[in-house]
Hints:
Structural class: alpha/beta
Bound molecules: adenosine-5'-diphosphate, magnesium ion
Strand content: 15-25%
Oligomer: single chain
Number of strands: 17
Number of helices: 15
Amino acid sequence: xxxKAIKDIDIKDKRVFIRVxxxxxxxxxKIEDDTRIRGAMPTIEYAIQQGSKVILASHxxxxxxxxxxxxxxxxxxxxxxxxxxxxxxYLRAMPQLQDISSRGDEPVxxxxxxxxxxxxxxxxxxxxxxNDCVGANVKERVNQLKAGEVLLLENLRLHAEEEANDDEFxxxxxxxCEVYVNDAFGAAHRAHASTAGITKFVDTxxxxxxxxxxxxFLSKALNNPERPFVAILGxxxxxxxxxxxxxxxxxxxxxxxxxxxxxxxxxxANGYTVGKxxxxxxxxxxxxxxxxxxxxxxxxxxxxxxxxxxxxxxPLNSRKTIPIEFTNKGLVGxxxxxxxxxxxxxxxxxxxxxxxxxPVGMFEEKPFDEGTIAxxxxxxxxTEKGATSIVGGGDSVAAINQAGLEDKISHISTGGGAxxxxxxxxxxxxxxxxxxx
Length: 437
Ligand code: ADP
Ligand code: MG
């Protein structure tokens, strides 16, 4: 990576502003999935260990857009749903963020009377919360921070200036700190005040540990992969993935496996009947162009040979596996078939780099998760045999978790949109803005 990272600089006793991605699902004040928070912990813990005064900032949802929509539809709007307060409660309760020295030998989750406490009730004098992200009060609070303390700022997107990448707002954020760290890979494809603008007003802007890890894995796969390099692409729409497909062919992946609904646009473009399977008619010429491009670059493009279908008029009782060419007009394809699973598995044998984005079937609906789970297992097996595997995309990562294989993949990318843009070969504004090595 040609960008400076947090370990390249001295952060002792410094006010360190860490842009994290705490955009987590919250329901009734409870965090439903803490993956993103856990992803940011190595950087936060490192900064604490180094004796920094840690300022954490994140966005959460789209409060201003949602408010506008609610007003237009004359619906009630609850702004409290966009507060990062639940994340603060969560951080306070994390054992690794509690001040162990002040706790003595007391068991962590027991009070003086010996009764067990809820996690949030545990004493924590290390983690604090600010009701805003800019302004005089926040500035004063930041100036009181001691080494090893953490202050979480309120949702950046409660200010329209954040997404507008407003200079004045970015400057206010910058004034809070001496060092800026971007660890929010998932927001790096956006040029916002906290991801891009702020870097104009700080002396030092570096990548956090999660950001660094993402960039190392993804840029290695893109620019210098160990071969054979096999990519698996799936998902619902070709249109979402065209830049990624083109970038991978341009970089001469050895094999490109295409599954999921996306494959049907290719089949139909080649004159097959695909029944009621998802097709993007307008992209049929593009699909043929991609096939030609693959041929010119000697990339082996592998499409399914069979699929699981249901009769669109009797979806519950009509599941069967048939060759693609036997598809008649009432059928809809929802997963790859057993033969395709074998072909994809064989294509993965001996791979040294594997990149996977997009489920190969409608995995949210059992039993149409069979193909996706089988591919997840094959990717895990190939990883065990020495391949570097990278899985990206919200649904693909969900599928890996559903299969319980998250520990068997070399790198699970946290990026979603940012991952796809990076793989398309686009520069990410949040990365570009960081200091060069
Ligand atoms: P990711 O979030 O990993 O980038 P996508 O969002 O591109 O993946 O695609 C995931 C979606 O594709 C899932 O909702 C899945 O149900 C859908 N999908 C995959 N195959 C099919 C299919 N054959 N028919 C309908 N939907 C499909
Ligand atoms: Mg998705």
